[in-house]
Amino acid sequence: MINLLLVDDNFSVRDTLKDFLEFFYNDLNIFMAKNGKEAIDLVENNKMDIVISDQMMPDMKGSDFLASVIDKLRADKAWIYIYSGQLTEELRIDFKDYGEVKVIDKFTNPMFFKEIIENYKVAVTN
Hints:
This protein has 126 residues and is an alpha/beta fold. The chain has five helices and five strands, in the order βαβαβαβαβα. It has a five-stranded parallel β-sheet, sandwiched between helices.
């Protein structure tokens, strides 16, 4: 099973992405968090393989959540994606310090999320 964490304060975004991925895959264990605090608890208590998080959330931005758990995620060799509906070059630069974090547009084609899973499966079998 692949442990995947979805972090977004918008329930419909979380639920839609979860349903979309579960339509294609039955080997995903999908964790969902509505904010950074919930996400931190999930990361601290589970090994995550893939993390997909919104950047703009109330109380804690995706970057703040990531800063709290980056060492654990690196140790787990997690693939990390941050998405934003307000994607700017400044935001991309902010995440350069994390190296392996990929910043994507929140409104990207949903098939991109399917590609993430496919690429992960290929990477872990090689």
